[in-house]
Amino acid sequence: MKKIIIVSAMFLSTSIFAFDKAAYTKIAKETVKEALSGKVSNIDALIKKQETLVKLGIAGCKKYLKSHSDSRTPAAVTEKKALELVIANADKMKKSSLEKIEENWHDGGVFKKNGVKINEIDHMGEVNSLADTVIHAATSYLALVEYKKQPNKDHLDQVKDELSEVLEHIKHIK
Questions:
Q1: What is the pLDDT of residues 25-43, one digit of tens each?
Q2: Which residue from 53, 97, 142, 151 could staple onto 137, CB 3.0 to 4.6 Å apart?
């Protein structure tokens, strides 16, 4: 019962967000610009923006799943499972560490543990690009949380790298 309530609450908290590619792009570019400047004027506001990016990414994943719900090919099943894992674990990603998110998501650990052959999904395709809107935003979130604790240019560099990569991926989302 507890799991159902948590999942329902998670769905409700992201269902008010629609995937807005333009808004995602704008926020990501603003974050990259601030990271490049080396001076973060309001770290809490910048962290909050990453939370918004994660929510927008989740909305994009859900929209994709809904519009492709009839697909039953082996590739579609793999893609569906990958996006479902990203959606279900987005909050856990933000509670992780930079090392764990790298191992579990960027290196594919969670996908492998759940039988998802992530290498069979086109790296620059729409599904991987949608997953990255969540994974890279969550990583950026973690890097900014670390930066808040102890300002270090390396954390800002990571934010720039994460979101610059996702800005390339977002071009592949319809």
A1: 999 999 999 999 998 999 9
A2: 53
